[in-house]
Amino acid sequence: MTAGKSDSDTGFREFNVGFDDDGIRLDRWFKRHLPDTSFTTVAMWARTGQLRVDGARATPGDRIAAGQMLRVPPPEADKAAADVDKPRRVRERVILSDEETELAQSMVIHKDFQAFVLNKPPGLATQGGTKTTQHVDGLLDGLQYDNEGRPKLVHRLDKDTSGALLVARTSRAAAFFAKAFSGRTARKVYWALVVDVPSIEDGMIELPIAKQPGTGGEKMHVDEAEGAPARTRYRVIERAGNRAAWVELQPFTGRTHQLRVHMAAIGHPIVGDGKYGGAAAFLTGGISRKMHLHARRIKVDHPDGGSIDVTAELPTHFAESLKQLGFEEKLGDDLVLDEKTAPTREQMKSRAKAHAKSVRKDRKGERRGRGVVEEKATGKPAPKTGGPRTGAGSKFGAPRSGPRVEGAKPAGRARPGGAGKPGPRSGPGTR
User: Fold this and answer.
1) What pLDDT digit, counting tens, does each position of 182-212 carry?
2) What gap in Å lies between CA 356 and CA 345, rounded to an integer?
3) Which residues are catalytic?
4) Is-contact 295 163, C-beta < 8 A?
């Protein structure tokens, strides 16, 4: 923003919209640059025609563009003196220690004018909280360099999850990336080691998630009745017999602990995730007890055109576990990132109806077969079985329990819920 110029005759001020404010609402511009001017005052100026953008009347909800000229009325008479003496409220830059600055800068794996991508190590929280003094947000002052604005977090990773974390360098970029994440156009790819091997190699998990009562919001769980919709796609990259699998995870919604809750719900907790997998989440044989969940890749459109597509190296414990299980890191990167989005709720319902119709057809064939057998054995016609079915999972009875997993390419004999195991295969890292 260019400093305001005042008309000596009228007292009106003029401001040139800066590059960092391109595309924001006019009321948001006032919050950034004239925070002492209330929304009520801005609305009054708009109603009376005193607020102008490039000479035309403007409203608080109008979006402005870089290079436009704003004409703003003079401050109210009773606030004029106070505005002269009262400096603009600016957050003071935090001075970090040399070690903290070095840590912050060592995490940077991508840097441009609009954004950083960090490779967050496991054990470092994204934001502060109770008894959390060191976190990524607190280290961002070490990445300010010569910019006037402080870098801003765009999304989060769990404390024990490592990998790619996007940080905006300008307010404009923060708004752009926030829209990308809320609109689900940003793509995130995670790698995980999970216990046992999913029976379906490529599946979509759709299970609603809510805060688990009695945990103070610290733990989530699957809640069919009250949970928020959550969808995760997984693909098996490689397997170590029936002991463990290396999987790729793509979240299509952004619920808290979503990947951890979903994998535990289908019977394959992430290795090292005792919170959701309990004792079953830990492997013997020298495999690290740390969480094996890593944000391997992030792909998102760039505010200036093109895209950011960055891969984050694995932490030491994860890389060592892959080697110990006989997995080759190259196999995971060879998977093609599908550009298709997750199926909509309507598409999922349509598939569920088709599946139910197929099941009813199979059951009808089974009943006919039983009737023929009984008639041959007794010489009497088999009794007709009409009326509604009221058993579990029927149309009229209680809903089916357990997770819903849609998928293809079964790795072995599929079982309900997608949690079955394939036939035995020997040797680590066999495919």
Assistant:
1) 888 999 999 999 999 999 999 999 999 999 9
2) 16
3) 158
4) yes
